[in-house]
Amino acid sequence: MQQLDLQVIERALSWARDGEAVWLCTVLATYGSAPRAPGALLAVCGEGRHVGSLSGGCVEEDFLERLQCGEFDAPVTTLRYGGGSEDGGVDAPHVSLPCGGILDVLVERLPATAETLVHLEVFHATLLGQRPLLRCVDLDDGRRHFLSDDGTGPRVVHDPQRRTVQLRIGPAARLIIAGLSPVSEACARFAQSLGFEVILCDPRDALHRDIALDGIELQRVLPSQFIASGACHAATAVVALTHDPRIDDLAMIEAVRTPAFYIGVMGSARTSQARAERLRRSGGLSDADIARLHMPIGLDLGSKAPAEIALAVMADVLRVQRGKARDEL
């Protein structure tokens, strides 16, 4: 989750500013069951203090023990837990993951230099900002740089031929929910558990009185007004879940003017066709604009209950965020 990434990088930056070397560990790949996904981070300073995680604890314990024994002095090291090493990585066959899976880990030793500080500051600013980047690491000499990115696709891209790794970083994923409804509430809770920053917009005061969603921002304004205020960045998904065209249609008209990676609206196939015609005629949307809209929203899971619909919605949002085509599922 990006919020945990932010905690890791903030602590790493603090250690580097205090003149301490930092070991930044990133999950590169998983095979079989694994407790953390590719891109998960762990930062450790020379005294053994650490933040973040790579597993349920067994990998961290082994890494910290080996670090205290003087290992990982190279600028970059690759590790495999739960199986043999490859690509010149260091072997750790004595640690078996309880889930039975295999975990590949990148270990970067970041000395307390001006170059490290700049790199971590850019990393930190990217997590707080609106522009995603690719963090590129050379697996032979540890040199690293940033490239522009569109924010979608797998979090880790490993090129064994060029001996490089590209790590996708960006602002915390944001979900803007247009309109209050039972589906909206379920979707907000799902998204929050997935690490999204969730903002629920609805101008109807009467509906807000009965809502109780801890940790979720409630905006008592028209969703279209909130979206038009500049609330969307490239890591934003916008979903309209009310069946009320006065809310949903206006939200779609504004959302297509933003860089949001996912824009979807609830409704049947027939309703969606009618909405498309209405948005062309009254909203001035082009065919390209209409093509950006996921309608009917969500994966076709045969969902009926609000929680089932919310599950289908968030599954589709994650599919697009990870760069997966429907026929790849």
From TrEMBL:
Residues 15-67 form the XdhC- CoxI domain. InterPro entries: MoCofactor_Util/Proc (IPR052698), XdhC_CoxI (IPR003777), XdhC_Rossmann_dom (IPR027051). Residues 175-317 form the XdhC Rossmann domain. This is Xanthine dehydrogenase accessory factor.
